[in-house]
Amino acid sequence: MRQVGIFGKRKSGKSALMYALTKHKIKATFKAMEIGSVTKVMLVDTVGVDVEDTTAEKSAQSVEVALMLITDDSFELELAWISKLKKGGSSIIVVISQADKFSDGGKALAAAVKEVSGLDALCVSSHTGEGVEELDSEINRLLGSRD
Ligand SMILES: Nc1nc2c(ncn2[C@@H]2O[C@H](COP(=O)(O)OP(=O)(O)O)[C@@H](O)[C@H]2O)c(=O)[nH]1
Ligand SMILES: [Mg+2]
Asked: pLDDT exceeding 90 applies to what percent of the chain?
């Protein structure tokens, strides 16, 4: 089955995002069933990228699309992981996680990531649902572009 991996530090919101995406997916699947096209995707929750463990490394090798969660302005580790994931052939989506915690919805942090890495980030809150639908579309777009 095709795999989408969720990466980020401990407490960055990986498990909450997995749950939010799954809930959204259940609704989307009902819609998709009507037109008879359901793509089965396995979402892979990982241990933190800040944990010395080979589990995340192993997941990194098999995911087609990797979500990299960033929650604050120390994101060197995340950028290093992005390079590693890209080398392994994964498509990357940078997510400003827990976006509801920022007064600007995460826009300034997204701009800082863009400045350093050139990557666009999606601001997502698993708690309010903000950005979850956009993230789901982006995952599907990238999976589609890899067919
Ligand atoms: N405000 C807010 N808190 C969040 C959000 N997502 C996760 N959290 C909280 O952040 C903590 C860590 O979340 P969790 O999903 O377990 O992180 P993980 O360790 O990366 O899997 C928990 O207390 C969550 O309730 C979010 O979108 N907004
Ligand atoms: Mg977790």
From this structure: 62
